[in-house]
Amino acid sequence: MTEPAAQPDLEVRPLLKSEYADWLPLWQGYQTFYGVTISDGDTNTAWSRFHDPSEAMFVLGAFVNGKLTGIVQFLYHRSTWTAGDYCYLQDLFTSEDARGKGVARALIEAVYRRAEDDGCSRVYWLTQEGNSVARVLYDKVASASGFVQYRKLISPLTPKD
Fold first, then answer.
1. Which of 16, 17, 140, 153 has its CA 20 to 30 A from that of 66?
2. Could you give the CA distance from residue 47 to residue 41 in angstroms, rounded to a whole number?
């Protein structure tokens, strides 16, 4: 089954600083999905960075009929492998009613366009192995790298029980 093409009434664009109240429920939904709690302070820091032109962090929103139904957050960083920056698609989330309607694909493709326009040489992201629904789409729009992530948390993220 292929994900349908993006809806004609779908608009993907950078979120405005004034759209925090619309973004926050999706950001909280993302955290719930992954079973983490990100502090209000860190949430506010991220939101500020998205709107600071000196930061290489960005947020796009997908609007269907004017309603925010999905978000994607990404950042650029240097690489030792290429002269162009890499684009790390860090967070992608859509509301329940937007799933299977092309919203996630439209957000990913918007990141691809933005990264290419900005001279990045790669877009990449991580997902949980068990995120099978999303992985059906990811397998269509990118290639799995075959790498396994290792990490040691230095700063506290509070997992939900």
1. 140
2. 10
Helix axes 20-34, 40-50, angle to 10 degrees: 120
Average pLDDT score over residue span 31-58: 96
Say whether 77 sits in a helix, a strand or coil: strand
**How many whole angstroms separate alpha carbon 122 and alpha carbon 87?**
6
User: What are the φ/ψ torsions at residue 14 (nearest 5 degrees)?
Assistant: -60, 140
Concatenated DSSP letters for the chain?
-PPPPPPTTEEEEEPPGGGHHHHHHHHHHHHHHHTEE--HHHHHHHHHHHT-TTS-EEEEEEEETTEEEEEEEEEEE--SS-SSPEEEEEEEEE-GGGTTTTHHHHHHHHHHHHHHHTT-SEEE----TT-HHHHHHHHHHS------------S--EE--
Structure-token match 């040489």, residue found: 121
pLDDT band (50, 70, 90) for residue 1: very low
**Cα 105 to Cα 65: distance, rounded to the nearest angstrom:** 17
